[in-house]
Design goal:
787 residues, alpha/beta, TIM Barrel, Rossmann fold, Immunoglobulin-like, 3 domains, six-stranded mixed sheet, 34 strands, binds beta-D-glucopyranose, Fn3-like, beta-glucosidase activity
Length: 787
């Protein structure tokens, strides 16, 4: 890349001026003047980033901008002579991702590892998500970053997507509302967010070249809906387009997506950027309305300059993106002269992550053993991850955190006694396994030096579970009051999970079977804890233990958060935001998903696109709108745990459900009473069943609203009010290219899960129709599932 403005004489045209409007930035950029002084090359530089060392860009520029906040994913391009600084863009969803240490600097720059996105969504508590977002945003600002590359909002189309841990749900309403709350929280700090990956980035395999072939209806109702909700409710500063193609066009090159839908239909006013090295043709990306190409490559620069010169790209289109990017810079803390401290309140944030993580854990089974109310209990702790708790996933969703509280430490902190003998046995075993895995990675990196960096970035295989003889277990069972077994999973960017990762490994199965058998014989009980980022198989073994708690990957305070729940200090109130199938193949998309494929990582996106490998080069979304519970419940397929499921230590009664309709909305009220002996909160889900849904090929029910009670003491009640706009009852009608609300009687299902409906109400609704643009059509015939 050419060195231009960075080294030119300084001539600042950005001025500080007082403004009456408190929310307007104090320092302003005189866009007209700045634009007038920019050459075509300046503009082309400005709309692409500075590159990435080892991949693209000019080392001097990269060096200068990356040293602003080392470890940040990228920056905008600085135009020093015009007084336009580079602003810093940094990941990610579970907390700020920057380097924790810096060369020649004894200070540390650790960030809090908050719970993964899936756990946050499982709280169904938007206020809590907003508070977590606010704490993350405080760290963004304190460490001198300007835009957080989060939240990640793709639909969990299939349990094996490697990045599901970053995502929220199989349902767009949960995903959209969670993202909106997160964005609101982060942006309260006057720093930006980047809602990503827009759109349909539902697999990691060949993600830079995969064509997601989706009906217009499924796109609108499922894959775009969450973005639409979040963008309208929270106005993220930026949107990040996805790597993949949708119906034959790269997302980042799709004017239909980035201009027609995002801006014209939804009214989005912010800046759009690509995912890192996403898309191919810089001029086309600009033309589409993708304002910033990150982190920027020479070909994109060349393509923009040549495009303007040849007339292929109107200079007005480039100018528009320059202006939007200038507006982003103008709002940034860096341009506003914010003096960052590098000293976020990590102690306070440790408390935020501890509490929020406990609220998103899901109690899956409990025969009464939980809570382990007396701390005098002696726990025998099994499973590798009990001792090496997994805080989150890998890749850009990782956070460089100072520590992780293991379950072992959490139990000790909670006053429990833990078997030392087991602890020592696991320590030796873990050491041996770590060495073996390191050696494997070393060998693989040597064999494939091109991918060495990626191999380090990718999830490491977890060791097999340590097994014990019956005698050893019997001895432990005699000496302890209860066994806790943790099963762990790790996944991350670049690669999808394998079917073997969904199923239990032979050693995990054996460990559960043996421990349960020996402990039950000794009249002792067994709790299984899941330290995972995505759904696993449970149907074949869930009868064995006495209790199961899904702790997810709960951030750096994980062990403490789990013990807050196990001990009963906090009653579990999380519920699943996705369905847990009996078998992997029960998921309809399992035949249209890359199963155990080579991930085909192509960082610079320059591979020859072959077009014929199903689910790798293209993926047909044949399940159409029947994603998750929309499929299982409409087609009566048995599940292991339904969408929306989660137990509590207490019980709840639903009463006095009522509804009121006016022209614009339906309002449902329901009173929830705590009828058990523990304090607790309850999530209430409102599904809608459209008239004649079977004949009209609609899901049997769809979530439209939800709420959570306050913490209820035994005997206490709370009345929740849930509101659904009539327009949100619409389905997408492809023939009319319109959102259509069918006239008739709608059933309103008030549920504790998608399969536990507590009250059914009805509401008469008048027809309405809202036309939208007829865009993003599939280019091929899809064989869509129908009811
Ligand atoms: C990921 C994005 C991330 C970016 C910058 C990409 O590989 O897909 O989610 O924000 O890198 O790190």
């Amino acid at each position: 890349m050419k060195k231009t403005a960075l080294f030119l004489a300084t001539a600042i045209v950005a001025v500080g001026c007082a403004t009456a409007d408190k929310s307007a930035p104090k320092n302003k950029i005189n866009q007209e003047e700045v634009m007038a002084r920019m050459s075509l090359e300046d503009k082309a530089h400005f709309v692409i980033g500075t590159g990435m060392a080892g991949f693209s860009g000019n080392d001097a520029v990269i060096g200068a901008t990356r040293s602003l906040v080392p470890g940040a994913a990228g920056t905008t391009y600085p135009l020093d002579s015009l007084g336009i600084p580079a602003i810093v863009l940094a990941d990610g969803p579970a907390g700020l991702r920057i380097d924790a240490t810096r060369e020649g600097d004894s200070a540390t720059y650790y960030c809090t590892h908050f719970p993964i996105g899936t756990l946050l969504a499982s709280t169904w508590n938007t206020q809590l998500v907003e508070a977590v977002g606010q704490a993350i945003g405080e760290e963004v600002k304190a460490y001198g970053a300007d835009v957080l590359l989060a939240p990640a909002l793709n639909i969990m189309r299939n349990p094996l997507c490697g990045r599901n841990f970053e995502y929220y749900s199989e349902d767009p309403v949960v995903a959209g509302k969670t993202a909106a709350a997160y964005i609101t929280g982060v942006q309260k700090n006057d720093v930006g967010t980047s809602i990503k990956h827009f759109a349909a980035n539902n697999q990691e395999t060949n993600r830079m070249n995969n064509d997601a072939r989706i009906s217009q209806r499924a796109l609108r109702e499922i894959y775009l809906k969450g973005f639409e909700i979040a963008i309208k409710e929270s106005e993220p500063w930026t949107v990040m387009t996805s790597y993949n193609y949708i119906n034959g066009v790269y997302s980042s090159e799709s004017k239909d997506l980035v201009q027609t839908i995002l801006r014209d239909e939804w009214g989005y006013k912010g800046t759009v950027m690509t995912d890192w090295f996403g898309g191919k043709d810089g001029a086309r990306q600009m033309w589409a309305g993708n304002d910033m190409l990150q982190p920027g490559k020479q070909e994109q620069f060349d393509s923009i300059v040549a495009g303007v010169k040849s007339g292929k790209l109107a200079e007005a289109d480039l100018d528009r993106s320059v202006q939007r990017t200038l507006s982003l810079v103008e709002k940034s803390p860096r341009f506003q002269g914010y003096q960052y401290t590098n000293k976020p309140d990590l102690k306070a944030h440790a408390e935020v992550t501890r509490q929020s993580a406990a609220e998103g854990m899901v109690l899956m089974k409990n025969n009464g053993i939980l809570p382990l109310e007396s701390s005098k209990i002696n726990v025998a702790l099994y499973g590798n991850t009990s001792y090496d708790f997994i805080a989150g996933g890998t890749g850009s969703g990782n956070v460089n955190h100072a520590y992780v509280v293991s379950l072992l430490d959490g139990l000790k902190n909670g006053g429990y006694t833990v078997s030392d003998e087991l602890k020592n046995a696991y320590a030796t075993y873990a050491d041996d396994c770590k060495k073996a895995i390191e050696a494997e990675i070393e060998a693989a990196s040597k064999k494939d030096p091109k991918n060495a960096m990626l191999l380090r970035f990718m999830p490491r295989p977890l060791p097999a579970e340590k097994l014990f003889s019956v005698d050893e277990l019997t001895k432990q069972a005699e000496a302890s009051d209860v066994a806790v077994i943790t099963l762990g999973r790790i996944s991350g960017e670049f690669v999808d999970r394998k079917v073997s990762d969904f199923n239990l490994s032979p050693s995990e199965r054996k460990l559960i079977e043996q421990v349960c058998e020996v402990y039950h014989k000794a009249n002792k009980q067994v709790v299984v804890l899941l330290n995972i980022g995505g759904v696993i198989e449970t149907a074949s073994w869930k009868d064995l233990p006495d209790a199961i708690l899904c702790a997810w990957q709960a951030g750096q305070e994980g062990g403490n958060s789990v013990v807050d729940v196990l001990s009963g200090r906090q009653s579990p109130s999380g519920k699943f935001t996705m369905t847990w199938p009996v078998n992997f193949t029960d998921v309809y998309s399992s035949k249209n998903f890359p199963i155990d494929q080579d991930p085909r990582i192509d960082m610079m996106n320059q591979g020859q696109k072959s077009t014929n490998v199903r689910n790798v080069d293209y993926t047909d979304y044949e399940e159409d709108v029947y994603v998750g519970y929309r499929y299982f419940d409409s087609f009566d397929v048995l599940v292991s745990y339904p969408f929306g499921f989660g137990l509590s230590y207490t019980t709840f009664d639903y009463a006095d459900a009522s509804c009121m309709t006016d022209d614009d909305a339906i309002t449902v009220k329901v009173t929830v009473k705590n009828t058990g002996a523990h304090e607790g909160k309850e999530v209430v889900e409102l599904y809608v069943s459209a008239p004649d849904n079977k004949t009209n090929n609609k899901p049997v029910k769809e979530l439209k609203a939800y709420g959570k009670t306050k913490s209820l003491k035994p005997g206490e009640s709370d009345t929740l009010t849930l509101r659904v706009k009539t327009a949100d009852l619409a389905s997408f009608d492809e023939a009319a290219s319109a959102w259509v609300v069918a006239e008739g009687e709608y059933q309103l299902l008030v549920g504790a899960s998608s399969q536990d409906i507590k009250a059914t109400l009805t509401a008469k609704v008048k027809a309405q129709q809202t036309k939208v643009n007829d865009v993003m059509k599939p280019q091929t015939q899809l064989h869509l599932l129908k009811r």
